Amino acid sequence: MIDDLQVLIVLEKITNMFILVAAALMSTGLFQQGMCIPCMERVPFLDSNTIQNSIDFSQAVSAVRDGYRQRGNGAPAEPRTLLHHEQPAGIFTGYFAILPETSVMGMYVYSGGFESGEAWFLFGLYDAVEGTPLGIFDGASLNPYKTGATGAVGVDALARSNSSTVGIIGSGPQAYAQIHATAVVRDIECVSVYSPTKAHREAFAEHVNGELSATVQAVDSVAAATIDSDVVITATRSRTPVVDFDHISPGTHITAMGQYGALKRELDAKTVSESVYVPDLRSRIEYDAGSYIQAIEAGKIEPDHIHGELGEVITGTVPGRQSPEQITVFDSGGTAIETTAVAAHVNDQVSDADIDIELPFISSTEAFGLDYR
Questions:
Q1: Taking the complete model, does pTM exceed 0.90, yes or no?
Q2: Which residue, 73, 84, 134, 335, has fewest beta-carbon neighbours within 10 Å?
Q3: Would you give the DSSP letter of residue 38?
Q4: Which listed CATH number (3.10.560.10, 3.40.50.720, 2.60.120.560, 3.40.190.10) goes with 145-335?
Q5: What pLDDT score was predicted for residue 215?
Q6: CA-closest candidate to residue 166, choices 120, 123, 213
């Protein structure tokens, strides 16, 4: 079976052949006066290897923190648009952001489910001065860096500065990214991990133990992971709460990042009501943040319970933690802010030698005579 890379290579060869033929025809005068070869913008495709060789978690945290700082200063960003397909069951979703100070803008789209049962991610990075495309990215390879870094930026903005113990619920790739990124912003001494499958949580603990200086242990319950932890991270696919307020100690910071959608939640209503609650984007809360929506429906909070967006905390527009005893929550549902920030960093690191494939694009003026100025 021909894979996507082979298709792209064939398309590139066909396009290059077209350009050569057209140039030859022009040199012979066969083109009528006034006709021209379309002006092509050569846009690099950044694959998984290129991305992974161009960023680490420390760099991702720095990039995402700056992205949310720009958001706090008014950078435009929109929550996801989510479309559902019934048969076969699947979703198609995307979101957008502009980072004016970095002079970039991005769109992140993906499908999930359908007959393959897979998710396929695509990211497009644009120049925010010229409006031209800068790169097309394998979005799945950006995901661990942008998602892990966002959780870590939330920890850095809201957790106590001396936080050293972490409880993590979930043992998949997202949990792995979260703990590695969190280790960038706090000196972690102990990590307790719980997930329902014993073999999975034990494998996670063994693997991460060899990579972090912290002690990583698998525990037998959510309570054992959370009750003595300074930072709690939920990275699950659970549709019902995995965090019980009765098992959260005063002063804990919680990052909830595993689920989004009105009918899905990782936090119980009391945890939301008793916390300083900070989302990534205020505009997504009313339809996308299940823990918040269901706390309102249960009568535990009012719609104005939101303390402020993460970017507003970073810029000081609203205060962050105001006492060591406060419980803070960062609800991270995913935005194009972090994806654009991480992609921009990767784009700055790569050179022409790193790019195997370039895709040809023509402008609207060349294609159908439309100038947007």
A1: no
A2: 84
A3: P
A4: 3.40.50.720
A5: 95
A6: 213
